[in-house]
Amino acid sequence: MNTLLRGVAVAGVTALVVALPTVLGLASPWPVLLVAGVAFARPARPSTAAALLVGAAAWWLSMALRAGVLPDATWSEIVAAVLAVSIVVLTALVSSDRIPMFAGLAGIAAFAGLYEPVFAAAPTEFLSASPLAFGAVVVATGLGILTATLVEVVGGISPRGRATSLRTEAVS
After folding, report:
1. What is the mean predicted confidence (pLDDT) over 23-51?
2. CB 87, CB 61: distance < 8 Å
């Protein structure tokens, strides 16, 4: 039953993204699916959303360096990628994993997946194109986290798939 509820919720959000791509700024539902998967793996908390956005911002920064500072070379891509991953790892370390590394890496994947093809086609358009891609990641993060949170609250389902009680019991 838990899988069915989660599946129906994700299918509904996916249909919304496909039906309204220009309204939501998402050409494809895959970023929402990625975020929903991350949120279902762990409680949908603000720290999960924060980690996703830290990862996306880290990749945006690395792309900014590639667009404006580093030469167009393989070693530049390596430096930029290592920088982005290092930011996510350091954020997780400093926060004692309250901002989880796995969600930060998913944020990198979401932004890189959306923006890398755009950057490869027109690196000089970074300042105009990258904010749109980042905005799409923010929308995807919101939709994915919202979907997971609603399933947890409405369905009484914990992130691990176990039913939970919304009642609290008095401590004797």
Report:
1. 75
2. yes
Identify residue 172 by its one-letter amino acid code: S
Residue pair 113/31 in contact by the 8 Å Cβ criterion:
yes
Residue 71's DSSP bridge partners are none
H helices of the chain, where?
2-19, 21-24, 30-41, 46-68, 74-94, 101-121, 126-155
DSSP annotation of 72 reads: S
Q: Can you say how many angstroms the Cα of residue 103 is from the centroid of all Cα atoms in its chain? A: 7
Each as own residue / partner, the long-range contacts of residues 163-172 (CB below 8 Å, 24 or more positions apart, any chain) are 163/2
Mean pLDDT, rounded, of the chain: 81
CA distance to 63, 77, 116, 163, per residue, from 68 (Å): 8, 13, 15, 50
Is the pLDDT assigned to residue 171 strictly greater than 60?
A: no
Q: What's this model's pTM, rounded to 2 decimal places? A: 0.75
Q: What is the CA radius of gyration of the chain?
A: 18
Q: Pick from 81, 93, 103: which is nearest to 36 by CA?
A: 103
Q: By the 8 A CB rule, do 58 and 108 touch?
A: yes
Q: Are 60 and 136 in contact (CB under 8 A)?
A: no
Residue 33 has pLDDT above 50, yes or no: yes
